[in-house]
Write a sequence for this structure.
């Protein structure tokens, strides 16, 4: 299921992306047709996925891989329970909520 997110693209800049879970991969692709890069993260390259619930319905995510870190904000209209279930089902122990194992 695709989820709308804003991927950090600089210190104070974010870009609209879609986070999709396809099998054992996380795919981050630009929400609008642009020259922004598409990212495909395979389960074998994935270290952890963290979901950090913040204030004012702000929920952040951090995806750590062997080669980099992807940080962003999950759209406030996202069904978090559904997203959490999808991440747990596909990635199990690599998935962390608020700094604790799920």
């Amino acid at each position: 299921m695709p989820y709308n997110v804003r991927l950090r693209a600089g210190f104070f800049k974010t870009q609209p992306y879609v986070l999709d879970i396809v099998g054992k991969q996380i795919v981050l692709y630009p929400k609008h047709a642009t020259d922004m890069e598409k990212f495909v993260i395979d389960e074998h390259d994935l270290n952890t996925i963290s979901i950090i619930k913040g204030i004012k319905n702000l929920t952040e995510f951090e995806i750590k891989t062997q080669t980099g870190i992807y940080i962003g904000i999950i759209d406030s209209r996202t069904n978090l329970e559904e997203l959490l279930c999808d991440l747990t089902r596909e990635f199990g122990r690599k998935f962390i909520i608020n700094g604790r194992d799920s």
About this structure: Residues 80-91 form the longest helix (12 residues).
